[in-house]
Write a structure and sequence with these properties.
Length: 170
Amino acid sequence: MAIQNVLQFGNPLLRKPCLAITDFTAPGCLQIQADLRDTLLDLQRIHGRGGGLAAPQIGSNLRIIYINTRHRSLHLCNPVIVERSAETFEVWDFCFSARAAFLAPVTRNLRIRVEYQDTAGKTHGEEFEAYLSELLQHEIDHLDGTLFIDHIKDTGTITMVDEWDKIHVA
């Protein structure tokens, strides 16, 4: 249970598909869950943004993500998107594996249905929309070796976080 360093773009581990969890009580699995939580909470404290973190970002090849938003905190083990809405929306995305330094618009499905297991291995199916849909698509992409930069259609739209904050937060 410790804050971990976040791997950065270019690290080959971020491009490898993760392995399904089969033993939910294994010490390594429990450790990754705790480390994801502790690391994300620390990143949110430092950066004031971000809602999720995936295991490969802290060097693990297990299919685990942790989300922490105002309304919900949840570990999802072995998550798979089983359904996507035809309706999409554009969102300004960023990633802690890019030091949370820049944002770029990407297109995501407005609604998704995800099948996942909780930390005890119980299977759930749930629909997510809007922000949680985007967040889970981003984090599940990490588990498949895909980064948000793979979804950028126009590199001319990339904006540094400091500039974004001057324009949109000030």
